[in-house]
Amino acid sequence: MSPPLPSAVAALLDQQEGDRVLLVDDVPDNLSLLHDALDEHGYTVLAATSGEAALARAAQGQPDIVLLDAMMPGMDGFEVARRLKANPATAHIPIVFMTGLTETEHLVAALQAGGVDYVTKPLDPRAVLARMQVHLQGARQARQTRQALDAFGYASIAVRASSGRLLWQTPLARELLQLYFGTVAPQTPAPVLAWLRRCLAEMDDGTPPQEPQRLSAELGARRLSFRLHHCIGGDDTPGPNGSSAAASGDWLIVMREVSDAAVIRSLGLAFSLTAREAEVLYWVVKGKINRDIGDILGASPATVKKHLERIHAKLGVETRTAAASMALTRVREMHPQWEV
Protein backbone atom coordinates (compact mmCIF):
# COMPACT_ATOMS: atom_id res chain seq x y z
CA MET A 1 0.00 0.00 0.00
CA SER A 2 1.07 3.64 0.25
CA PRO A 3 4.12 4.81 2.21
CA PRO A 4 3.42 5.81 5.80
CA LEU A 5 2.62 9.34 6.84
CA PRO A 6 5.60 11.36 8.16
CA SER A 7 6.88 10.44 11.61
CA ALA A 8 5.55 13.65 13.15
CA VAL A 9 2.05 12.72 12.04
CA ALA A 10 2.47 9.15 13.24
CA ALA A 11 3.56 10.44 16.66
CA LEU A 12 0.44 12.54 16.95
CA LEU A 13 -1.70 9.56 16.01
CA ASP A 14 -0.25 7.68 18.98
CA GLN A 15 -1.42 10.29 21.47
CA GLN A 16 -4.42 9.22 23.51
CA GLU A 17 -7.12 11.24 25.22
CA GLY A 18 -10.29 10.30 27.04
CA ASP A 19 -13.13 9.26 24.73
CA ARG A 20 -16.10 11.61 24.70
CA VAL A 21 -19.56 10.08 25.01
CA LEU A 22 -22.78 11.95 24.32
CA LEU A 23 -25.55 10.45 26.47
CA VAL A 24 -29.08 11.32 25.31
CA ASP A 25 -32.12 10.31 27.40
CA ASP A 26 -35.15 12.22 28.67
CA VAL A 27 -35.28 10.11 31.88
CA PRO A 28 -33.01 11.59 34.59
CA ASP A 29 -32.55 8.22 36.34
CA ASN A 30 -31.17 6.67 33.13
CA LEU A 31 -28.79 9.59 32.65
CA SER A 32 -27.56 9.35 36.22
CA LEU A 33 -27.02 5.58 36.06
CA LEU A 34 -24.98 5.67 32.88
CA HIS A 35 -23.19 8.93 33.67
CA ASP A 36 -21.74 7.46 36.87
CA ALA A 37 -20.67 4.24 35.15
CA LEU A 38 -19.04 6.05 32.23
CA ASP A 39 -17.32 8.59 34.47
CA GLU A 40 -15.94 5.77 36.64
CA HIS A 41 -14.35 4.20 33.56
CA GLY A 42 -12.62 7.41 32.51
CA TYR A 43 -14.98 8.68 29.81
CA THR A 44 -15.81 12.35 29.34
CA VAL A 45 -19.60 12.50 29.40
CA LEU A 46 -21.79 15.02 27.61
CA ALA A 47 -25.50 14.81 28.45
CA ALA A 48 -28.70 15.91 26.74
CA THR A 49 -32.34 15.36 27.67
CA SER A 50 -33.95 16.24 24.33
CA GLY A 51 -33.34 15.80 20.63
CA GLU A 52 -32.66 19.49 20.05
CA ALA A 53 -30.11 19.58 22.87
CA ALA A 54 -28.47 16.42 21.54
CA LEU A 55 -27.89 17.96 18.10
CA ALA A 56 -26.38 21.08 19.65
CA ARG A 57 -24.11 19.10 22.00
CA ALA A 58 -22.94 16.83 19.20
CA ALA A 59 -22.03 19.74 16.94
CA GLN A 60 -20.22 21.60 19.72
CA GLY A 61 -18.61 18.72 21.62
CA GLN A 62 -17.77 16.34 18.74
CA PRO A 63 -18.20 13.15 20.83
CA ASP A 64 -16.57 9.89 19.80
CA ILE A 65 -19.82 7.97 20.23
CA VAL A 66 -23.50 8.73 20.95
CA LEU A 67 -25.72 6.67 23.26
CA LEU A 68 -29.18 7.66 22.07
CA ASP A 69 -32.59 6.96 23.55
CA ALA A 70 -34.93 5.90 20.77
CA MET A 71 -38.21 7.12 22.29
CA MET A 72 -38.26 10.72 23.51
CA PRO A 73 -41.01 13.34 23.48
CA GLY A 74 -40.79 15.85 20.66
CA MET A 75 -37.91 14.85 18.41
CA ASP A 76 -37.35 11.12 18.87
CA GLY A 77 -34.04 9.31 18.63
CA PHE A 78 -34.62 8.15 15.07
CA GLU A 79 -34.92 11.74 13.84
CA VAL A 80 -31.90 12.80 15.92
CA ALA A 81 -29.85 10.06 14.27
CA ARG A 82 -30.97 11.05 10.79
CA ARG A 83 -30.01 14.67 11.41
CA LEU A 84 -26.63 13.73 12.87
CA LYS A 85 -25.87 11.61 9.81
CA ALA A 86 -27.04 14.37 7.45
CA ASN A 87 -24.63 16.89 9.01
CA PRO A 88 -21.06 16.50 7.62
CA ALA A 89 -19.67 17.69 10.97
CA THR A 90 -21.29 14.80 12.88
CA ALA A 91 -21.91 12.15 10.20
CA HIS A 92 -18.84 10.13 11.24
CA ILE A 93 -19.95 9.63 14.88
CA PRO A 94 -21.18 6.09 15.65
CA ILE A 95 -24.64 5.93 17.27
CA VAL A 96 -25.74 3.19 19.67
CA PHE A 97 -29.48 3.23 20.31
CA MET A 98 -30.91 2.59 23.76
CA THR A 99 -34.40 1.20 23.38
CA GLY A 100 -37.12 -0.74 25.13
CA LEU A 101 -38.57 -1.58 21.72
CA THR A 102 -37.53 -5.08 20.68
CA GLU A 103 -39.80 -5.61 17.69
CA THR A 104 -37.85 -6.25 14.53
CA GLU A 105 -39.28 -3.26 12.68
CA HIS A 106 -38.09 -0.87 15.42
CA LEU A 107 -34.59 -2.32 15.44
CA VAL A 108 -34.45 -2.11 11.67
CA ALA A 109 -35.61 1.52 11.89
CA ALA A 110 -32.79 2.27 14.31
CA LEU A 111 -30.19 0.89 11.92
CA GLN A 112 -31.76 2.61 8.91
CA ALA A 113 -31.65 5.93 10.77
CA GLY A 114 -27.88 5.58 11.09
CA GLY A 115 -27.34 3.51 14.23
CA VAL A 116 -24.50 0.98 14.32
CA ASP A 117 -25.86 -0.99 17.28
CA TYR A 118 -28.47 -1.03 20.05
CA VAL A 119 -28.84 -2.00 23.71
CA THR A 120 -32.17 -2.83 25.33
CA LYS A 121 -33.77 -1.37 28.43
CA PRO A 122 -33.70 -1.77 31.35
CA LEU A 123 -30.08 -0.75 30.91
CA ASP A 124 -27.20 -2.78 32.27
CA PRO A 125 -24.16 -0.43 32.42
CA ARG A 126 -21.78 -3.37 31.88
CA ALA A 127 -23.56 -4.34 28.66
CA VAL A 128 -23.59 -0.74 27.48
CA LEU A 129 -19.84 -0.40 28.10
CA ALA A 130 -19.14 -3.64 26.29
CA ARG A 131 -21.13 -2.60 23.21
CA MET A 132 -19.47 0.81 23.19
CA GLN A 133 -15.99 -0.71 23.09
CA VAL A 134 -16.87 -2.60 19.93
CA HIS A 135 -17.36 0.68 18.08
CA LEU A 136 -15.00 3.05 19.87
CA GLN A 137 -11.75 1.61 18.51
CA GLY A 138 -12.56 2.66 14.95
CA ALA A 139 -13.99 5.98 16.11
CA ARG A 140 -10.86 6.68 18.17
CA GLN A 141 -8.56 5.96 15.25
CA ALA A 142 -10.61 8.14 12.93
CA ARG A 143 -10.59 11.01 15.43
CA GLN A 144 -6.86 10.84 15.94
CA THR A 145 -6.26 10.65 12.20
CA ARG A 146 -8.36 13.77 11.65
CA GLN A 147 -6.49 15.62 14.38
CA ALA A 148 -3.12 14.68 12.92
CA LEU A 149 -4.03 15.54 9.36
CA ASP A 150 -5.56 18.84 10.38
CA ALA A 151 -2.50 19.72 12.46
CA PHE A 152 -0.06 19.03 9.63
CA GLY A 153 -2.10 20.57 6.84
CA TYR A 154 -2.98 17.43 4.91
CA ALA A 155 -6.02 17.57 2.67
CA SER A 156 -7.66 14.22 3.39
CA ILE A 157 -11.01 12.50 3.33
CA ALA A 158 -12.48 9.22 4.52
CA VAL A 159 -14.92 7.45 2.21
CA ARG A 160 -17.08 4.39 2.87
CA ALA A 161 -16.60 2.30 -0.26
CA SER A 162 -19.84 0.33 0.02
CA SER A 163 -22.15 3.36 0.15
CA GLY A 164 -19.93 5.97 -1.43
CA ARG A 165 -20.53 8.27 1.54
CA LEU A 166 -17.91 10.87 2.45
CA LEU A 167 -17.58 10.32 6.21
CA TRP A 168 -15.24 13.14 7.15
CA GLN A 169 -12.79 15.60 5.66
CA THR A 170 -10.13 18.04 6.78
CA PRO A 171 -10.87 21.75 6.26
CA LEU A 172 -8.47 22.00 3.32
CA ALA A 173 -10.06 18.95 1.68
CA ARG A 174 -13.48 20.57 1.98
CA GLU A 175 -12.25 23.65 0.12
CA LEU A 176 -10.53 21.64 -2.61
CA LEU A 177 -13.47 19.33 -3.29
CA GLN A 178 -15.79 22.30 -3.63
CA LEU A 179 -13.32 24.07 -5.90
CA TYR A 180 -12.56 21.14 -8.21
CA PHE A 181 -15.87 19.24 -8.18
CA GLY A 182 -18.50 21.54 -6.67
CA THR A 183 -19.52 18.90 -4.12
CA VAL A 184 -20.01 18.97 -0.35
CA ALA A 185 -20.08 16.18 2.23
CA PRO A 186 -21.57 13.64 2.54
CA GLN A 187 -21.38 13.44 -1.26
CA THR A 188 -18.17 11.97 -2.64
CA PRO A 189 -17.32 13.34 -6.10
CA ALA A 190 -18.29 10.74 -8.70
CA PRO A 191 -14.80 10.54 -10.30
CA VAL A 192 -13.21 10.00 -6.87
CA LEU A 193 -15.65 7.25 -5.90
CA ALA A 194 -15.25 5.49 -9.26
CA TRP A 195 -11.45 5.64 -8.88
CA LEU A 196 -11.63 4.27 -5.32
CA ARG A 197 -13.76 1.32 -6.38
CA ARG A 198 -11.44 0.57 -9.31
CA CYS A 199 -8.48 0.51 -6.93
CA LEU A 200 -10.27 -1.85 -4.55
CA ALA A 201 -11.34 -4.14 -7.38
CA GLU A 202 -7.73 -4.39 -8.52
CA MET A 203 -6.63 -5.14 -4.95
CA ASP A 204 -9.23 -7.92 -4.77
CA ASP A 205 -8.41 -9.68 -8.06
CA GLY A 206 -5.82 -12.04 -6.58
CA THR A 207 -2.75 -10.37 -8.08
CA PRO A 208 0.18 -9.30 -5.85
CA PRO A 209 -0.57 -5.99 -4.07
CA GLN A 210 0.98 -2.88 -5.54
CA GLU A 211 0.71 0.87 -5.24
CA PRO A 212 -2.77 1.85 -6.54
CA GLN A 213 -2.76 4.25 -9.45
CA ARG A 214 -3.34 7.82 -8.36
CA LEU A 215 -6.19 10.01 -9.54
CA SER A 216 -5.61 13.52 -10.85
CA ALA A 217 -8.01 16.38 -11.49
CA GLU A 218 -7.01 19.61 -13.22
CA LEU A 219 -8.19 23.17 -12.76
CA GLY A 220 -6.30 25.43 -15.11
CA ALA A 221 -2.63 25.12 -14.25
CA ARG A 222 -3.50 23.56 -10.87
CA ARG A 223 -3.65 19.82 -10.38
CA LEU A 224 -5.14 17.84 -7.49
CA SER A 225 -3.90 14.29 -6.96
CA PHE A 226 -5.55 11.59 -4.83
CA ARG A 227 -3.61 8.78 -3.12
CA LEU A 228 -5.29 5.79 -1.50
CA HIS A 229 -3.58 5.49 1.88
CA HIS A 230 -5.15 2.76 4.00
CA CYS A 231 -8.35 1.22 5.34
CA ILE A 232 -9.40 2.72 8.67
CA GLY A 233 -12.17 0.23 9.47
CA GLY A 234 -15.86 0.55 8.77
CA ASP A 235 -18.74 -1.45 7.46
CA ASP A 236 -18.98 -5.19 8.02
CA THR A 237 -21.58 -5.67 5.30
CA PRO A 238 -20.52 -6.97 1.89
CA GLY A 239 -19.52 -4.41 -0.68
CA PRO A 240 -21.05 -3.94 -4.14
CA ASN A 241 -21.83 -7.25 -5.88
CA GLY A 242 -20.75 -9.22 -2.82
CA SER A 243 -17.21 -7.92 -2.89
CA SER A 244 -14.71 -8.32 -0.06
CA ALA A 245 -14.47 -6.47 3.24
CA ALA A 246 -11.92 -4.10 1.68
CA ALA A 247 -14.54 -2.99 -0.83
CA SER A 248 -16.99 -2.18 1.95
CA GLY A 249 -14.58 -0.51 4.38
CA ASP A 250 -13.78 3.09 5.21
CA TRP A 251 -10.73 4.35 3.31
CA LEU A 252 -8.40 7.23 4.02
CA ILE A 253 -7.54 9.21 0.88
CA VAL A 254 -4.77 11.80 0.97
CA MET A 255 -4.97 14.71 -1.47
CA ARG A 256 -2.20 17.00 -2.71
CA GLU A 257 -2.55 20.06 -4.88
CA VAL A 258 0.25 21.16 -7.20
CA SER A 259 0.30 24.39 -9.18
CA ASP A 260 2.21 24.63 -12.45
CA ALA A 261 2.60 28.39 -12.07
CA ALA A 262 6.34 27.86 -11.54
CA VAL A 263 6.53 25.85 -14.76
CA ILE A 264 4.80 28.63 -16.69
CA ARG A 265 7.19 31.21 -15.24
CA SER A 266 10.13 29.01 -16.21
CA LEU A 267 8.91 28.82 -19.79
CA GLY A 268 8.65 32.57 -19.95
CA LEU A 269 12.18 33.08 -18.65
CA ALA A 270 13.73 30.33 -20.77
CA PHE A 271 12.34 31.61 -24.07
CA SER A 272 11.84 35.34 -23.33
CA LEU A 273 8.07 35.02 -23.59
CA THR A 274 5.39 37.30 -22.23
CA ALA A 275 3.25 35.93 -19.40
CA ARG A 276 0.38 35.18 -21.80
CA GLU A 277 2.72 33.57 -24.38
CA ALA A 278 4.15 31.37 -21.64
CA GLU A 279 0.62 30.27 -20.70
CA VAL A 280 -0.22 29.45 -24.31
CA LEU A 281 2.98 27.41 -24.70
CA TYR A 282 2.24 25.58 -21.45
CA TRP A 283 -1.13 24.45 -22.78
CA VAL A 284 0.39 23.49 -26.11
CA VAL A 285 2.75 21.20 -24.20
CA LYS A 286 -0.31 19.77 -22.42
CA GLY A 287 -1.76 18.84 -25.83
CA LYS A 288 -4.54 21.42 -26.00
CA ILE A 289 -5.79 22.81 -29.32
CA ASN A 290 -6.26 26.54 -29.92
CA ARG A 291 -10.00 26.45 -29.19
CA ASP A 292 -9.44 24.74 -25.84
CA ILE A 293 -6.62 27.12 -24.93
CA GLY A 294 -8.89 30.04 -25.74
CA ASP A 295 -11.60 28.65 -23.47
CA ILE A 296 -9.10 28.20 -20.64
CA LEU A 297 -7.54 31.66 -20.97
CA GLY A 298 -10.70 33.54 -21.88
CA ALA A 299 -9.44 34.46 -25.36
CA SER A 300 -10.53 33.76 -28.93
CA PRO A 301 -8.86 31.02 -31.00
CA ALA A 302 -7.60 33.77 -33.33
CA THR A 303 -5.85 35.51 -30.44
CA VAL A 304 -4.29 32.21 -29.36
CA LYS A 305 -3.08 31.68 -32.93
CA LYS A 306 -1.35 35.08 -32.93
CA HIS A 307 0.36 34.28 -29.62
CA LEU A 308 1.48 30.95 -31.06
CA GLU A 309 2.96 32.61 -34.14
CA ARG A 310 5.09 34.85 -31.91
CA ILE A 311 6.10 31.82 -29.84
CA HIS A 312 7.25 29.99 -32.99
CA ALA A 313 9.36 33.00 -33.96
CA LYS A 314 11.00 33.28 -30.53
CA LEU A 315 11.75 29.53 -30.39
CA GLY A 316 12.91 29.40 -34.02
CA VAL A 317 10.49 26.63 -34.98
CA GLU A 318 7.71 26.34 -37.53
CA THR A 319 5.20 23.93 -35.98
CA ARG A 320 3.40 23.58 -32.65
CA THR A 321 4.77 20.04 -32.37
CA ALA A 322 8.34 21.34 -32.54
CA ALA A 323 7.52 24.11 -30.06
CA ALA A 324 5.96 21.62 -27.64
CA SER A 325 8.95 19.28 -27.92
CA MET A 326 11.46 22.06 -27.26
CA ALA A 327 9.46 23.42 -24.35
CA LEU A 328 8.98 19.97 -22.80
CA THR A 329 12.71 19.29 -22.94
CA ARG A 330 13.48 22.59 -21.22
CA VAL A 331 10.81 22.13 -18.55
CA ARG A 332 12.10 18.68 -17.64
CA GLU A 333 15.59 20.08 -17.28
CA MET A 334 14.33 22.68 -14.82
CA HIS A 335 11.56 20.62 -13.16
CA PRO A 336 12.59 16.93 -13.29
CA GLN A 337 9.54 15.75 -11.33
CA TRP A 338 7.01 17.53 -13.55
CA GLU A 339 4.46 15.38 -15.36
CA VAL A 340 2.55 16.36 -18.48
From TrEMBL:
Keyword terms of this UniProt record: DNA-binding, Phosphoprotein, Transcription, Transcription regulation, Two-component regulatory system
InterPro entries according to UniProt: CheY-like_superfamily, Sig_transdc_resp-reg_C-effctor, Sig_transdc_resp-reg_receiver, Tscrpt_reg_LuxR_C, WalR-like, WH-like_DNA-bd_sf
Pfam family for this entry, one: Response_reg
GO cellular component: cytosol; protein-DNA complex
Record-level GO BP terms: regulation of DNA-templated transcription
Keyword Glycoprotein in record: no
PANTHER family: REGULATOR OF RPOS, TWO-COMPONENT RESPONSE REGULATOR ORR33
Name this protein carries in UniProt: DNA-binding response regulator
Organism: Roseateles aquatilis
